[in-house]
Amino acid sequence: MYATIPDLLRLLFVPALAWAAYHDVRVRRVPNELWYPFVALGLGLLAWEYVLVERTSVFLVRAAVSLLVIPLAYVFWFIGGFGGADFKAFCVVALLYPTYPSYYVADLALPLVRTQLGVFSVTVVTNAMLASLGYPLALGLRNALTGVVSKLMFVGRPVTTHQLAEAHGSLLETPEGFSRGGLDLDALRMYLRWRGVTLGQLLAHPERYRDPATVPEETNDPGDGSVTTEEIPDPASEPDPREAAGEYDDPWGAARFLDDIDSTAYGTTPAKLRDGLDVITSQTRVWITPGVPFIVPLFVGLLLALTAGDLLFALMRLIGLV
Q1: pLDDT at 246
Q2: 93: closest CA among 308, 301, 293?
Q3: Which domains does the chain have, with CATH numbers?
Q4: What is the pLDDT of residues 76-120, one digit of tens each?
């Protein structure tokens, strides 16, 4: 392979983004320390290429357009469109890839398809969006192959309630039926840790834990909802539970939980938490959205951009729009 030194250095981000995507799928967390070296590398390469190579207004315009990806990504992160790791990955892509890199393998020049705009980060983002469109089809096919046919088969998958302790995403059900705004499973884990109970205990004795009087006076740090093998600390004290069902001012202690913690628990409200707990304690299987982080299609989009180039531009060219 032949390429300039800046373009070869940019390839270092590919395995790093692959690891970040894998880690985000497994535990929904990516260490912040991963991004700092690549932010520094991106800023350094911007200065290197402008001072030593380009020195043109075209380069500055393309770099400015690329950096516009950052505030756009921030807006999507702010409204909850994707997570913090997705936003940080977008920022690095915008810094590292303002213009098209060039790689020569034998007689082949990569990327194969280049846009007239010439901003490579935009190509990565549009490729990622196209890649994300294929996910519902893959999810539906997976469900169909396992014998699961439902109106939810393209947006979620069924799991047993005991599997929720290590699942990611959010519930697709409320007591009223299907909903895309169900309880976030990270928030569920935060609630369980705060109370000092396991999911198994909650499912075995729902009426006991629905009584807010069984919330101990000294609760635990809820953490961030990540899957962990650590034991949930035993509560310091717990009143004698009442087994009979009853009407309470604060069922499950949901309002106290959100008042007590220094977090929004991923946008959870007392009503949403109560609805989610009612669903999982009344059924043995529930539908969840896998909630695949956008960093996964972003990685796929980067691989496609480095090799095939801009898929949207190629499609538009094929049908005669450009």
Answers
A1: 60
A2: 301
A3: 5-138+293-318 (1.20.120), 157-289 (no CATH)
A4: 888 767 788 999 999 999 999 999 999 999 889 999 999 989 999
CB-based contacts of 178, cutoff 8 Å, min separation 6: 151, 152, 172, 287
Distances (CA, A) of 16 to 67, 174, 252: 21, 38, 42
Q: 51: Cβ–Cβ under 8 A, 6 or more apart, which residues?
A: none
pLDDT for 38:
97
In this prediction, residue 232 carries a pLDDT of: 60
Look up the pTM and report it.
0.78
Token code pair at residue 51: 């001072």
- 247 and 212 Cβ atoms separated by less than 8 Å: no
Residues of the chain with pLDDT under 50: 236-240, 242-244
- Which is it for the CA torsion 287, 293, 294, 298, positive or negative? negative
